[in-house]
Specification:
With 586 residues, this protein is of the alpha+beta class. It has 2 domains: 64 residues, Alpha-Beta Complex (Penicillin-binding protein 2a (Domain 2)); 355 residues, 3-Layer(aba) Sandwich (Beta-lactamase), CATH 3.40.710. It is 35% helix and 17% strand. It has 17 helices and 18 strands. Strands 1, 2, 3, 4 and 7 form a 5-stranded mixed beta sheet that branches. A hairpin with a 2-residue loop joins strand 16 and strand 17. The longest helix is centred in the first third of the chain and has 47 residues. The radius of gyration is 44 Å and the shape is elongated. The termini are far apart.
Length: 586
């Protein structure tokens, strides 16, 4: 028997004996499997992390780059929107008349004030216009909120801020600012400390201005406003008058280009105004306007068809009605035709013309030109005309020459513009009329009557009571008026003088009116205080300055066509020119 020296694969081992090679192979195999499993798990975990990172990144990209803002919802209450600013008021060229500025207002919580005496002393030192006792009383009150000063200036704000006093707080507010100062104070008006409109355009358009509906562009022209203010002020100063007023109006649209009332006030500090400084003489004041009413009397009688320019009336004999006597200021002591009555401003002739057409006709005409109600314009301060009740024949006579019925200067300007612009009444407006915008109007007299009135306007300036209003090249026409002022039931020697001027009268475009209240004689007027010496020269100065600004080219007054258009019939033209002067317009 041969002995085995080695085992083969087929050799069988005895039970309980371990094969070393098999154990070695098995250990290597298990380790490899474990490593493989670990590596796979790491790969899978890494892929999961990468996918998660990519998902988060993609979500962020989508959220920041592609989502709309309104889709992002924030679970918190929204911040309150800042209050809307009060809109601006502009002139026709875009210049600021009123605007709003951000300011700080000072208030206090008295419960948080540590030392009221110290705080009051320091506040009065920083804000000298405050009174110590008033401030101290507020700081020691039981309230939790007290106003100390509204609308601080930046300097005042800083002065209080650096005090560092506990219990003092600032509130963001707005303050109205008027860059042109007094220049248009009665028209623009003013606001209160709470930015609420209290007068003028500020009050009339208060809701619109507070609602953020946009700026209000007015018809005013600051350049013209400045000229009118300067010349009206000069007339008031020269004649030491109580006050005065003026209007510049576009007779084709009814736009008010300038309007001044004197004395005026600072709209920044309306509380400082005294007496009648805030009283608007143009819109709120009503007056017996004197001979300027002859504009409407003459237009009425000519348009009635019952009276013609060549018709003559008695201006020699006074009219006696009860205890009243109507007479001439400076009579010519002869019969005058309609043209001469207007030219020489005859009271007797005007009264007799009115009586001939009748009281009903006069009442109807005054109603048609709007003299029974306030002027329809964008102002809250409007005066109601004073109309006689009952309307007797004596009223018809006196109204014919401007006594016995009171209207505002705006009434006169509105009516006169309609009389000479072709006969169309346009409502006055303080809003700019855009180029090409249709302007509604109502015919009150015929074109023929309007043409006749233009001729009468022109002859008053060239040969009548308003010679000092003449401006070469601008073809000025107009009518003077000097009314005795009434106090109680009696008339005094105090005058209210006015002149209504229109240019160029051959093709009317603009009206200028100036009124002066109780002028005193001056050296230049040779002791006279009538409109021909007081108001007419001021209107002439205004026209001379505003004509170029309005683009009115000087006119050749010797042009045959222009002369023919304005030439009066030889049978109607006055013959006493040399004897007539600017003081004869009562």
């Amino acid at each position: 028997m041969t002995e085995r020296s080695s085992f083969t694969d087929e050799d069988e081992l005895e039970p309980g004996i371990v094969d070393a090679r098999s154990l070695s192979y098995r250990s290597v195999s298990d380790a490899a499997k474990a490593l493989e499993v670990g590596r796979n798990r790491l790969i899978i975990t890494g892929l999961v992390v990468i996918l998660a990172f990519l998902a988060v990144s993609a979500k962020l990209v989508v959220a920041t780059c592609f989502s709309h803002r309104e889709e992002i919802k924030v679970d918190r209450p929204a911040d309150p929107e800042p209050p809307l600013a009060r809109s601006d008021i502009l002139d026709r060229n875009g210049q600021l008349l009123a605007t709003s500025l951000a300011t700080a207002s000072l208030h206090a919580d008295p419960k948080l004030v540590l030392d009221a005496e110290e705080a009051a002393s320091k506040l009065v030192e920083a804000l000298p216009d405050l009174e110590y006792q008033e401030v101290y009383d507020k700081l020691t009150s039981n309230k939790r909120f007290v106003w100390l000063k509204r609308n601080l200036t930046p300097r005042q704000h800083y002065a209080v801020h650096i005090l560092g006093l506990p219990g003092l707080l600032f509130e963001n507010e707005e303050r109205r600012f008027y860059p042109s100062g007094k220049l248009a104070s009665h028209v623009v008006g003013y606001t209160g400390v709470d930015n609420v409109g209290l007068a003028g355009l500020e009050r009339f358009f208060d809701k619109r201005l507070k609602g953020g509906a946009g700026s209000v562009q007015t018809s005013l022209d600051l350049r013209l406003q400045h000229i009118l203010h300067r010349e009206a002020s000069a007339a008031v100063e020269e004649f030491q008058a109580l006050g005065g007023n003026g209007i510049i109006m576009d007779v084709r649209t009814g736009e008010i280009l300038a309007m001044v009332s004197l004395p005026d006030f600072d709209p920044q500090e309306p509380g400082d105004a005294e007496g009648d400084q805030k009283f608007d003489r143009n819109a709120l004041g009503v007056y017996e306007m004197g001979s300027t009413f002859k504009i409407f009397n003459s237009a009425m009688v000519l348009d009635s068809g019952k009276i013609h320019l060549a018709d003559r009336f008695d201006t020699i004999n006074n009219i006696h009605v009860g205890h009243f006597t109507i007479h001439e200021y400076h009579g010519l002591h002869r019969m005058l035709n309609v043209a001469e009555i207007f030219q020489y401003s005859s009271n007797l002739g005007s009264a007799r013309m009115a009586v001939q057409v009748g009281t009903p006709t006069q009442m109807a005409f005054m109603a048609k030109i709007g003299f029974f109600r306030p002027v329809p314009i964008e102002l809250p301060e409007l005066g109601w005309p004073l109309v006689p009740k009952p309307w007797r024949e004596i009223n018809t006579m006196t109204i014919a020459f401007g006594h016995g019925m009171s209207v505002s200067p705006l009434h006169v300007a509105m009516g006169a513009a309609a009389v000479i612009n072709g006969g169309i009444m346009h409502k006055p407006t303080l809003l700019k009329v855009q180029p090409g915008q249709e302007v509604p109007g109502e015919r009150i007299i015929s074109e023929q009557t309007s043409m006749e009135m233009r001729r009468l306007f022109r002859i008053v300036v060239t040969e009548g009571t308003a010679k000092f209003a003449n401006v070469p090249g601008y073809m000025v026409g107009g009518k003077t008026g000097t009314a005795d002022k009434q106090r109680g039931r009696h008339y005094t020697n105090a005058n209210l003088t006015s002149f209504v001027g229109v240019f160029p009268i051959n093709d009317p475009k603009y009206l200028v009116m100036i009124m002066v209240d109780e002028p005193k004689p001056s050296a230049n007027s040779h002791g006279f205080t009538t409109a021909g010496w007081v108001s007419a020269p001021a209107v002439g100065r205004v026209i001379k300055q505003i004509g170029p600004l309005l683009g009115i080219q000087p006119i050749d007054e010797q042009n045959p066509e222009i002369r023919q258009a304005l030439e009066m019939d030889p049978g109607t033209k006055g013959t006493a020119v040399a004897a007539y002067s600017p003081d004869d317009d009562h």
